[in-house]
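Ticket #4471: structure output looks truncated?

Reporter: J.K.
Steps to reproduce: submitted the chain below (293 residues) through the standard prediction queue, then opened the result file.
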Amino acid sequence: MATPKNQRKTILNSPRLLEFKKQKQQESKKRIFWATFFLLAVSVGLIFISRWERVNISILEIAGNKVVDTEEINKVVEDNIAGYYIRIIPKTNFLFYPKNKIITDLSNNFERLEHVFVDIKGNTLLVSVTERKAVYTWCGKEKIATERTSESCYFLDDSGYVFDKAPYFSGAVYFRFYGKLSNEAENPLGSYYNKEIFSKLRLFAKNSEDMNLDPVGMEVDSSGEIKMYLQEVKIREQPEIFLRVSSDFEKITENLDTALSTDPLKTKFAEKYDSLEYIDLRFGNKVYFKFND
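Returned output as attached by the reporter:
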């Protein structure tokens, strides 16, 4: 038998049921209060702990740099760990310090730095760097023989990466490269010199040295033609070796070695090097040469 509507309303609003509802509401409010209190207490505790001296960086050590100024590295690192996250947690906290950003900013600010390592030891932030070694120089898009003293050169590492301005050197202190860089911007820093074939170019130059040639520079033009310049002789300009970007470098090295150890080039090279004009390796297995007799 169905309960009358008025009777159901009376049951739902009975004093006992209303008291039960009131108790539930009070318990719910208490739980919310204590949960909020707990979260606030934990947050305050975490903020306090995050600012505790023992878990914050207080010493900065820089190691490995020889050319890049220590104070300049310090400034970049200190700028990164200054201030707070959401105005609460200090960036010096060893759990939250911006390690990756420090590495990125140092690498972007100092092209000479090849590797950057960051670590924490106690309260000390250790920043260890390795610098790129100057192996070659890049001296512009093309070689201008009559203006050597005014050449503006940049250092290259062994991968062909341009990382620093080079001072003026008299003589062939560094092997010089000429030609376009990967980045056509006005500032060549951060660019690569013929990255795809650079290892072949430097190996060919090294092999040429082993053949008692004296290479001092190389130019790659926009058409893919390569000129390697040999040490200048007293009575004329630098002898040149011609090859192409598309050459089989291993094969032309063998051809050149064979030609230099076989007459007539062997004898001419030994007796008349001062009159050598060029050696041409652009035509298959043939080696052409010219002396100004």
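Triage note (M.O.): checked the attachment and the full token line is present. The radius of gyration is 36 Å.
Status: closed, working as intended.
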